[in-house]
Amino acid sequence: MPAFADVFAQRLEALEAQQLRRSLVETTRTENVILQRGGKSYLSFSCNNYLGLAQDTRVIAAAQNALADYGVGSGASRLVTGQHPLHRTLEARLAEHQGSDAALLFGSGYLANLGVITALMGPEDLILLDRLSHACLLDGARMSEATWLRFKHNDPADALRLLKKHRARHRHCLIITETVFSMDGDRAPLARLRALADAHDAWLMADDAHGLYARLSARSGEKPDIVSGTLSKSLASYGGYVCAKPSVTDYLATSARSFMFTTALPATVLAATLAALDIAEAEPDRAARALTHAQRFCTALGLPTAHSQIVPLLFGDAALALAAMQQLEQEGLLVTAIRPPTVPKGTSRLRVSFSAAHTEAHVDRLIAAIRPLIIHDMRRHYA
Ligand SMILES: *Cc1c(COP(=O)(O)O)cnc(C)c1O
């Protein structure tokens, strides 16, 4: 038997041989989309800081004021030592933004999804997830001990097939999808999934982690029963939340283990998030700019129309995607290659994410650098 440390050294070598090893690189950030690594400066198209608020002086000032007033840490779980008033303030604002009646904050988006799925669903229940659902949605389904099955990506007909086959044998049923898919940038057919859920006595949950928080016109008729989200992408800070009816969020506060047994978000984070949400709603041109950049990029390169600020460039092979990433890196551009298990085998890609902090000149620079990297059979990956 190899020694303890050698077992994992061998596993790392095996991952390396398949181009699947990941590594951590020291990186600092001085501006929203400009990073420094190894003494070099890079223009990033990999950050989820979609609205360019992570370095916004108003958001920083809000965090600094809260820091001065309330200190650094929150000390314990909200159930143990009580909650800061800003928890309820932010929850009310998030619920209102999502057109929901109530919200509950969690330590991260990952913890929110784990918490809600494991608290609401159990061994007698059925969970149907979109095949491309984020890892934490899948982990929640697994940990819930419910029967879980995946339907074809954005395919309500396939979800219907599973409902017809399995729904009757289970107590409750939860259909899970994402408003905007994290690695593909496309959107779920929420109205059709809502109708499907209603027709089969199922609940609908949508993860809005990649939402842009611009004020939307009412989306009645396609409202999920549960919307989860993160504070760490468009809202520029850290944490997660779940929106639902008050009976659901109150139940989560007293039963979701990833809410109960972890320390509350600190006031600095709450204050920064509130400031970011105010700006996101008051300045909807930020969300519009991120989308316009994505659309211009796709048009220039003959790619399918962008449906969000996230654009996948599908290379298929992990080695090809990595080589493209390295080529761009030499030109001072950071576009991270995404490989299995983050995406299905054979769909390795560059994931390009656009931000309001990018300028048109930034996007032009990326277009010029990517044009020679487009492989001629790339289109076959776009069904
Ligand atoms: C990033 C992400 C999460 C996790 O959010 P964190 O706050 O980073 O833990 C959850 N779901 C989706 C779809 C994501 O992209």
Shape: globular
Secondary structure class reads alpha/beta
What's the helix count?
14
Rg is 21 Å
- Residue ranges: pLDDT <50 for 5 or more in a row? none
Order of helices and strands: HEEEHHHEHEHEHEHEEEHHHHEHEEEH
Q: Which ions, cofactors or small ligands are bound in this entry?
A: pyridoxal-5'-phosphate
Task: Kindly state the percentage of residues in helix.
Answer: 40-55%
Number of strands: 14
**Sheet with the most strands?**
7 strands, mixed
> Kindly state the mean pLDDT as a whole number?
94
Distance between the termini: 47 Å
| Strand fraction | 15-25%
SSE topology sketch:
Blueprint: H1 4-17, E1 28-29, E2 34-37, E3 40-44, H2 57-70, H3 78-81, H4 85-97, E4 102-106, H5 109-120, E5 126-130, H6 135-144, E6 147-151, H7 156-166, E7 173-178, H8 190-199, E8 203-207, E9 226-230, E10 240-244, H9 246-253, H10 257-260, H11 267-282, H12 285-301, E11 310-316, H13 318-330, E12 333-334, E13 337-338, E14 348-353, H14 360-370
Parallel strand pairs: 3-12, 5-6, 5-7, 7-8, 8-9
Antiparallel strand pairs: 1-2, 2-3, 4-10, 9-10, 11-14, 13-14
Helix pairs in contact: 2-11, 4-11, 5-6, 12-14
This protein binds pyridoxal-5'-phosphate (PLP).
